[in-house]
Amino acid sequence: MSRIEGVLKALKGQGRKALIPYITAGDPAPDQTVDLMHTLVAAGADIIELGVPFSDPMADGPVIQLACERALVHGTSLRQVLAMVKTFRETNDTTPVVLMGYLNPMEAMGFEVFADASVDAGVDGILTVDLPPEEADNVAPLFSARHLDVIFLLAPTTTDDRIRAISEHSSGYVYYVSIKGVTGSAKINVDEVAAKVQHIHNLTALPVGVGFGIRDAETAAAVGKVSDGVIVGSVLVDTIARNQNNPAQLNQALTDLLHPMREALDGLAS
Question: What is the pLDDT of residues 152-176, one digit of tens each?
Fold first, then answer.
């Protein structure tokens, strides 16, 4: 059982939902990322999605695009991101870490080299935004063979047949993109999300995490009612941007944002 599967099963047994925050590695500076990861855990994170900075993050809106730019200005590389995870693992061997990014940096390193390095660092899952299952035949098996969960995206427009096919190639959880557009681009329609997630649950046994558009405790709770976890990205990254010149304040600002979401999700179990 992978670390991701273990955490999600434990939460389900407790009647609780996963809180999955996303930050971009190297933002606002590489030497702050590990500390921010620990801050997220202390604030209630169950799984961390760690973004690998890329020069052309096509699925992301301006907030995360700027985060990638800040990270790349400091020269943050894929190998450095893996080193950050390895440092995180020195004091935390329980919180799953999913690397979320784009194909090019992994391909440049070499997929097998990247897979081995990910295992060595303590990575638990890989989510490659621009790698659909139909094109993953030479990549996903390398990850699966090393017990790295392979996570794919579902969209509001994904057909039933494709949901089934994607689920067959996925492990850990599936990531439902709640809006049509890039990250941070629109307000979430909770009723539409609820209907779609329930439909997805009828087609796959995998846990469903919902991301894009979750900005506060109220939205997190509404989405948590119908999903297995909520994925929070742009609002956290925007908080990092606004506090990038004040590291002490940054950690508190992230805690102030994430902790109410944790409380709201836990309130669903009571």
Answer: 999 999 999 999 999 999 999 999 9
Q: Choosing from 5, 46, 60, 238, which is the catalytic residue? A: 60
pLDDT reported for residue 270: 64
Q: Is the pTM of this model over 0.90?
A: yes
The yes-or-no answer on residue 130 being catalytic is no
- Which of 49, 124, 149, 228 is catalytic? The answer is 49
The confidence score (pLDDT) of residue 232 equals 96
90 included as an active-site residue:
no
- Angstrom CA distances, 55 to 33, 213, 236, 244, stand at 19, 23, 20, 20
- The dihedral sign for the CA sequence 250, 43, 40, 194: negative
* CATH 3.40.50.2300, domain 3-265, yes or no: no
Q: What is the pLDDT of residues 55-73, one digit of tens each?
A: 887 777 789 999 999 999 9
CB atoms within 10 A of CB 192: 12
How many alpha carbons lie under 13 Å from residue 59 in its C-beta half-sphere? 21
- Residues of the chain short of pLDDT 50, as ranges, are 181-185
pLDDT at 221: 94
The rounded Cα 132 to chain-centroid distance in angstroms is: 17
Annotated domain spans of the chain: 3-265
**What percent of the residues of the chain are helix, what percent strand, and what percent coil, each to the nearest 5?**
50, 15, 35
Question: CA 162, CA 153: separation in Å to the nearest integer?
Answer: 11
Which residue stretches of the chain are H helix? Answer: 3-13, 33-42, 62-73, 78-89, 103-109, 111-121, 140-145, 160-169, 190-201, 217-224, 234-242, 247-267
Question: Do the beta carbons of residue 169 and residue 24 sit within 8 Å?
Answer: no
